[in-house]
Write a structure and sequence with these properties.
This is Immunity protein 35 domain-containing protein. The protein is 23% helix and 27% strand. The protein is an alpha+beta fold. It has one domain. It has a 4-stranded antiparallel sheet with strand order 1-2-3-4, with helices on one face. Strand 2 and strand 3 form a beta hairpin. The protein is globular. The chain starts with 5 loop residues before the first helix and ends in a 15-residue tail after the last helix. The mean pLDDT is 87.
């Protein structure tokens, strides 16, 4: 899925379960991965969220229980990453 929306992330996380679909990984479709994030179901309930971006020297592991919050936070985090095929942002000063 190219450039997943907050709703798409919510649906993917909602579909996770302990038996056959325990995690989802979001990463660019490139050979040289510089960033990724994953969400995994925890046995005791809730989710583990991993965010990694080697270009920014980031590696964060957190837990959460609210899928809305996870999807929103990931949407914000993903918006700052480079996606193949997404137009580059242009910043201009007025």
């Amino acid at each position: 899925m190219d450039d997943p929306s907050e709703d798409a992330l919510f649906m993917m996380i909602s579909d996770l379960n302990n038996s056959d679909n325990t995690f989802v990984v979001i990463q660019p479709d490139e050979d040289d991965l510089v960033w990724f994030t994953s969400v995994a179901v925890l046995d005791e309930g809730g989710y583990e969220i991993v965010r990694r971006d080697t270009t920014r020297n980031e590696h964060e592991v957190t837990t959460a229980t609210n899928i809305n919050d996870i999807a929103r936070d990931l949407t914000i985090w993903l918006a700052a990453r480079d996606f193949p095929g997404r137009p580059t942002r242009q910043v201009s000063e007025f």
